[in-house]
Amino acid sequence: MPDSIPVAQRLPHLPEINSPGDLKKLSIAELQAVADECRNEVISLVSVNGGHFGSSLGVVELTVALHHVYSTPHDKIIWDVGHQAYVHKILTGRRELMQTNRQYNGLAGFPKRSESPHDAFGVGHASTSISAAAGIAVGAELSGSKEKVIAVIGDGSMTGGMAFEAMNHLGDLKSDVLVILNDNQMAISPSTGGLRTHLINVTLNKTYNKARTLLWQSISMINNDLGEKAKKALRKLEDGFKAALTPGAFFEALGLRYFGPIDGHNMEQLVKALKEMQSLPHPKLLHVITTKGKGFKPAEENQSKWHAHSGGFDTTTGKNLKVADGSLPPKYQEIFGEALVELAQNDIRITAITAAMPSGTSLDLFQNALPHRFYDVGIAEGHAVTFAAGLATQGLKPVFGVYSTFLQRAYDQLIHDVALQKLHVVFAIDRAGLVGEDGPTHHGSFDLSYLNSVPGLVVMAPADEQELRDMLYTALYDITGPVAIRYPRGNGTGVTLRKNFTSLPVGKAEIIRQGEGLTLLAIGNMVVKAVQVASFLEKEGINATVVNMRFLKPLDTEVIDTLVSRSTHFAVIEENSAIGGLGSAVIDHLNATGQHHPVLKVALPDAFVCHGDMNNLYRQIGFDTPTMMENIKRFYTATQR
After folding, report:
1. Which of 146, 375, 518, 563 is the Cys-Cys partner for 544 at CB 3.0 to 4.6 Å?
2. Across all residues in the chain, what is the average pLDDT?
């Protein structure tokens, strides 16, 4: 009796895929079987270790089709933002290591050039893929190489201005680059903006969908051995359809030939389209429609929630298997979001801005409570800052909630559009310091350094949740120019919160523990660490003073000068680069005033800290309390006068 089970379903294929080359010989049905297995693999992996989820599920078929048609590492695939690349890693020889994804000393959560030759470009921030692809393609041309270059951009990345700059240049270069627009209408939260509306409209255009078959037929005919006149005629026909019926007019105006949209979960369509793209030697864009979280019902139904997950869920129902710890204090971002809503409900001048991160910054609370004063500008941090500057000129009080690592992308606008004009914009800088498993592309290691040099900018960091509330109030009502508040990822310290807000004296620190000889100057979440270190040191016979500096700028030089008279040594503790932050500011002041006391910088190293859980990262850089105490003790005793 013949076996009724289709060949593609008899045995698992994934264990036999050791490199992309193993996909070349597979049929469409077998490729789909591999895709199904990859999807299950991602669900299983993230359910245990956590990680980015919905984005990788949405590009499973696209990833399999790309590696079936193209040949990495010779051909180059650049992933934008990079959290879409889990299946790419599975198919490029790292399947057995995926259980270490985002773990200390394990695989990175994003493509990383040093990790695999199949990772053509390191990523982690948005809207970079087309620029990188253009550079790689030009480099190949100059060296006489023939590889194909593909940029996969989606998950809101096309809302970033850098993507448009790159397309504009790419059209002028006329290099052989394929841009794949992975259109899932989402970033972490639903995408916003005119382009999104434009793309949605075309996918619903019945006239265009009827004409799409004719367009694809014309492409195939052009690639056949037709005469030049016939080819020109078909191209004119194709261009006419596009100009009248498709969003391609926009992309084609930039110099990219537009094709699509096609179903990003239809393996046959994907393979056919990608093979057609291979033969077109000029910039082109393939519009692919996908569903974020495809194949996992909970993720499809709540795409924002399942953008990423911390792990510990049922792989069928999505039910959280972790026991909730009700004793944990609220997260800093939640304290910020709730406080801003509370203040804004009594002040119509307060507005909130995010760059595609309403849930990540807890500004979704503001969005729900006061939608008419909430603005999600997309992945466009530079625009967000200058937009806030414009609001400030009209007497409003704009608050821009942004991750530390992403504010780096808007440094020029912060300086020239806000600080130079002395405009009252509040920067609420989340994820300051190390962030754990997302690693060096997401660590907020540099904000105190890059903010410290901006004239007129007030920079502060709360030691606990109540100080965050009070600093937000102070920033909105006691400061007239630009101001930044930086706070860490994760839960607060658990202090009891007051219902009212209190103004903090601008530029003034707080001595929270009196001692002699050694003074610990700490800022932000390192104040708690300083108190712990001081307790350890006390057992060693060293009675240290502890100061909550609160402000990096203006620096409380008065408290430093006061402490100089009874301190022989200073240790400055900050979760920021050792170059240019609080430690540097303290040393500069002591040198400028001729007070030459030994100063130890206890800060992040002049290096990119890897990814992993916070305990391991702290141990690696000496930020665990016992190591920090030993280093400070060694400094104090070795140089004691």
Report:
1. 518
2. 89
Q: What is the three-class DSSP state of 234?
A: helix
Q: Are residues 141 and 257 in the same domain?
A: yes
Q: Is 409 a catalytic residue?
A: yes
How far apart CA 408 and CA 403 sit, in angstroms, is: 9
Q: Annotated catalytic, 94?
A: no
Residue 260 resides in a domain? yes
Cis peptide before 398 (omega within 30 of 0): no
CA dihedral 639, 560, 463, 407 (to 10 degrees): -100
Confidence grade of residue 295 (pLDDT, cut at 50, 70, 90)? confident
On whether the CB atoms of residues 582 and 572 are closer than 8 A, the answer is: yes
CATH number at residue 75: 3.40.50.970
Distances (CA, A) of 116 to 87, 89, 361: 14, 9, 33
Same-domain check for residues 421 and 557: no
Cα-based distances in Å from 534 to 236, 363, 614: 77, 36, 22
Determine the structural domain holding residue 112 and report its residue range.
7-205+249-299
Q: Which of 257, 292, 294, 373 is catalytic?
A: 292
For the stretch 76-99, pLDDT in tens is 999 998 888 999 999 999 999 999
From the CB of residue 22, how many other CB atoms can be counted at a distance below 10 Å?
16
pTM for the whole structure: 0.87
Same domain for 577 and 443, yes or no, is: no
At residue 202, the 3 state secondary structure works out as: helix
Spatial contact of 442 and 403, defined as CB atoms under 8 Å apart = yes
Q: Taking Cα atoms as reference points, which of 315, 415, 297, 250 lies closest to residue 43?
A: 315
Establish whether 212 is a catalytic residue: no
Provide the number of structural domains found in the chain.
4
Residues 634 and 611 in one domain: yes
Q: Are residues 546 and 600 in the same domain?
A: yes
Residue 497 CA to residue 434 CA, distance in Å, equals 25
Q: Which of 39, 94, 212, 409 is catalytic?
A: 409
What whole-number distance in Å separates Cα of residue 490 and Cα of residue 409? 23
Residue whose entry in the numeric block shows the structure tokens 């400070």: 632
| Residue 129: inside a domain | yes
- For β-strands 426-430 and 397-403, DSSP reports them as parallel
